[in-house]
Every structure is written in C-alpha cells, then in structure tokens.
UniProtKB/TrEMBL annotation:
It comes from the Bacteria. The lineage of its organism: Bacteria, Pseudomonadati, Thermodesulfobacteriota, Desulfovibrionia, Desulfovibrionales. This is Uncharacterized protein. It comes from Pseudodesulfovibrio piezophilus (strain DSM 21447 / JCM 15486 / C1TLV30) (Desulfovibrio piezophilus).
Length: 107
C-alpha cells in the first residue's frame, strides 16, 4: 500500500503564476490547462507545506484551491482549503470522512 495519496486543484492559475511555481511542485503528476492546475500523487510520503504556502501567496484575488492529503499510515485525511494568503485545514479520520462531509453540508 502507498504511504499517501494527494489530490489537489488550484483555480485561476495564470501562465505567469504557473511559471513562478512550477519548479516548486513536489509531485510528478501535474496537469495545467492555462487556468487550472491539478496535482496527483500516490506513493511515498512527501512534504506539501512549503508548496501550499507558496501557492497561497501567488494566488490572484479570485483564486482558490483544495488539497486532499490522505495518510494511509495514520489513516486520516487532511483537507486543505487555499485562498490568497490564507490556508485552512481540517484533519478527519478516514473512517469518519463521509460523516464529516455530510455535517459540513448541513445534512
């Protein structure tokens, strides 16, 4: 089993912003279409904090992003919500992900 799975998407990433951050992307699976950056990683544990901080600093006013960091060893998910200059995160045990998601949506 892989140590971690990481899925992320960042919106309103201009080509200029992408050029500024592309060398700092810590994963190999990267898809960029001129506005949305998607990242994907399944494998060994990698540090994401520096990249998440960098992208938060570079996001334009209307930009936003999300990262799901699934730690298979600790059996928990860290959900990051990234906006310009702001990073919020919440840890949830994998067994409780659906309950937490439904609670967040008021269900």
């Amino acid at each position: 089993m892989d140590d971690v799975r990481i899925y992320g998407d960042f919106h309103r990433i201009t080509p200029d912003i992408f050029e500024q951050i592309k060398d700092a992307i810590p994963v190999d699976q990267v898809e960029y279409d001129g506005d949305v950056l998607r990242i994907d990683h399944e494998g060994t544990y990698i540090l994401m904090d520096d990249f998440i901080e960098l992208i938060s600093k570079r996001l334009p006013e209307e930009g936003y992003g999300h990262v799901e960091f699934i730690d298979n060893l600790e059996w928990e998910v860290t959900r990051y919500t990234i906006t310009p200059g702001k990073i919020e995160h919440k840890k949830i045990k994998v067994d409780n992900v659906l309950d937490a998601h439904m609670r967040d949506l008021g269900m």
